[in-house]
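Its record is retained below.
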Amino acid sequence: MVDGKPLHEAKGEVKYAASFLEWFSEEAKRINGEVLPNIEPHLRRFVLKQPVGVCGMITPWNFPLAMITRKVAPALAAGCTTVIKPSEETPLSALAFAQLVDEVQVPQGVVNVITCSRNNAELAGLLLCTSPLVRNISFTGSTKVGKWLLEKSASTVKKVSLELGGNAPFIVFDSADVKLAADKAVKSRFRNAGQTCICAERILVQENVYESFIDEFKKITMALRVRDPMSSECDMSSLINEQALAKVEDHVNDALLNGGKIVCGGKKLSSNGSLFYEPTIIRDCTTNMKCIAEETFGPVAPVIKFKTEEEALLLANSRNSGLSGYIFTNNMSQSWRVAERLEVGMVGVNESVITNEMVPFGGIKESGLGREGSSHGIEEYIELKLVCIGALENK
């Protein structure tokens, strides 16, 4: 089988990428300054919003087009120029985007793309972070690399926005619609073979509905079709590389050694170098397992049982990450309580598809700095300048 993202997901990403260009083309008209209240008769003060300057953009492999436009669109709307360093795993999407930029006659030098080998990726990042000409770094990727970029950018005191790792909790309370929760868990966990930062990484299920949820979750998961990504029948395709596959296998083996039980899946689909892994559910997981403590970033769904709302929150908030979280409950009071107490930047209540170009995307704690998308996304590429005009006394 051919490796890669399912074709229908890739087409969806193109539409998603285009939505940021459309959204921020409109936001460009709404970069409003401020006229401040007058408290001295001889002075007037106002605030300008100006472009920050040259922006360095380091983008990931899992959404190689949409993560470019989510950064480039607001930067261009703010009046900045851009230097894009795409993942060395997926440079062709960035080059295709650059070709489109030329075709629509964006002025030379406004949008720039630099590609590199895996061996030179660190050097490319270092150059962007330490160059005094670059005034902004925007990065989407791992927490480890994000911390390194933040440290290197300190030497020139740049504006830095980071969208980092997730490890999202997916909490199913006993008042939830179990079939809905199971369906949304499958769609979230196994999208792009589990290789998205807001995937449901840890499935927390209250004890009264634990068995019924497992049964429904298994039924829907086993119906997923793992195929060649170009096939119209493909629901899930491959992992990105051998390192990703090795991490998935390590997390599954660790869970089994620590008492977890395979509900379905649990192995590679072939032994001929394929990067395909079965969609996998592991039940009876515990907090000491790697699949709970770490972000697997693959098609493995660990399920852990809890008794009370307080216990669920303790489990959900126990990680250093805080990107997204999901709550399934039909108790309205509970949905408000838990949404407010979840230590994440984005919450879905009875829904796992929570993002588009209109909403602020980003996390708290070690999941990042700043927001992308929405009216707030353009602020990452703007500097505020106070102008105070004096000597305005009446003569």
